[in-house]
Predict the structure.
Amino acid sequence: MEGTVQGVGFRPYVHRLAGELGLAGFVLNDERGVLLEVEGEAAAVQAFLERLPREAPPLAAVERVSRTPLEPTGEPGFAIRETPAGGEPDALVSPDSATCSDCLAELLDPADRRHRYPFVNCTNCGPRFTIVRGVPYDRPLTTMAGFKMCPACQAEYDDPADRRFHAQPNACPDCGPSLRLVEPGGRELSAGDPLEEAVAALSAGNVVAVKGLGGYHLACLAGEEGAVAALRARKHREQRPFALMARDLHAARELVELGPAEEALLTGRERPIVIAPRRPGARVAASVAPRSPDLGVMLPYSPLHHLLLADVGEALVMTSANVSDEPIAYIDDDALERLAPIADLFLVHDRPIHVRADDSVVRATSGPPLSIRRSRGYVPAPVNLPLDAPPLLACGAEQKNAFCLARGRRAWVGHHIGDLGNWETLRSFREGIEHFERLFAVRPEVVAHDLHPEYLSTKHALELEGVEHVGVQHHHAHMAACLAEHGELGTAVGAIFDGTGLGTDGAVWGGELLVGSLSGFERVGHLWPVRLPGGERAIREPWRMACAWLVETVGPEPDLPPSLAGTVAPERWAEVARLCVSGTASPVTTSAGRLFDAVAALCGVRSTAGYEGQAAVELEALVDPAEDGAYPMSLIDARPTILAVLEDVASGAEPGRVAARFHEGLARATAEACASTAEATAVLSGGVFQNRVLLERTTAHLEAAGLRVLRPLALPPNDGGISYGQAAVAAALVS
Ligand code: ZN
Ligand code: ZN
Ligand code: FE
């Protein structure tokens, strides 16, 4: 039996079922999953085989059952046997799972021996992926190896009828991990109860670093402006919205508007951060998510979170503990050092985190929720491929990196690594790949990578010897990821809009209309090309894109628009206009992300950005839902759009109106361009389609034109989905 069947209570379940039906035999975990033999009355065996997959435990995902009839051996009863050594590991390690209701009840029950024990877990919940060091999934190969179970825990672990039978992270206050409270300098505070002290510090407005499942969070009261503003300032003036943790669903409903799909996500065992529209009057400090109509909210997913939230009694900011673009801290010494300037206190524990896993993020839309970051709670569950892949590694892109290993119909997309620009992320990229290669026994024969020679992921791929290399164009990978996820092997037209990706002609692509399938594509259209003045600097300074678009539409010496007059010096404006004309250090780009930047800058929303895409996020936030007009755009030539924006802004139009007309114009033009091809299926992907307004409106226009619309589901439309797309393309090309 194959699938996610280890560490999920499968063997005790089989034991119970066999016992109930009076069957003899055995069950064991092996390298491929679970192996079992049963013997007894034919009818009982038949009933067993029927019920086995149907009544499997909640965390199990049975993918394949193979059966072979055997001669009866006269086995006396039913046994759970030891895992044999050796062989090829192929069993599936399950993702970390939120505390189950049984464990939560024990946590809150004063009579239970685990009352208020922050590490309670069982075979149905608790840490998995983040504590696994190798397979088979057994305690010695987890970070729980150093804790020797007390007799009471051992008895649970050994009893097939117990909920904790072979629960590898099983622990209690007598034998398991414990909390500690540490000061920024590293001095341990031994007086008092660490949790109580941390709660008091939070309630007094302090910032506390909290060690969680996949890394550290920085926590503070969400409703306390002073605390949130201090956290923002200490995190190097971080400008991204902070995630919140609410005590329960009722508390979450007071913060954001939730539909049934979002509530299911919030309370599900994956527990992602759900981005949803903020409720008017939500008690949240202004600095939590400045200029955003949305809030990102999650519910407690570890027993420690449950205790913390219940004791504090109000929502907390729970943001990844890192400094600007560094990855989330997860190793204790490193966290203490890196976070010392940010946190007032550290609430830590002694269960090591083997693999860092950031919180996953999904965004509510009118259709299915959109994955923005797929990591903790989802990884390493496999994503299926619609065709057989040789053992392969796909290295992904540079930003929001996540690698992917594949074999056969399975693709294991790794945890969110982040931007590969620094030593720390590169290390976790390399270690992550090695770890996954061992966990899933993939010895890559094919290595897929982006075409960009400077991406560290590409360099890593090309350093690997004795393998077949497959370069995959960035936007083709975006499109292929969406096609493969939907099991689509035919052709489609894809509108792939993102920040940047290297094109086959050496230009910086990003507003592409592609027709093709997994095995290839043709570029049938693209946004009007403009200069990217000063290259990378244009990403941090959206006003440069406004200048580039004006040079393209009104002429080589555009006037500085009044909306930018206060923020951009006339000399710099003229200088950048000259760059656009000469092309010096200014590659040509068809980027849709940069078009959003230009429009945001033109209507005075944002002239400089703290992170890539900030201007676009804020432009979307401004969209006036009452406005139904649209700017002209011929197919996807945005020059008339820019002229219309300029005219509207000059006549004093509200930014909300400009934003609405721009979104609607782009949505219509995109749908029209897709419909003008002979394809019946359209793919919408690329990071720009994290924009809910654009995604929903383009989808509506495409459907009205009679096209079938595919958009990413399990994987994000941004570069986090690239490696899976590369894997699908490589599989199509080499098989
Ligand atoms: Zn549990
Ligand atoms: Zn114990
Ligand atoms: Fe991209």
Remarks:
- Residues 103 and 592 are 48 Å apart (CA to CA).
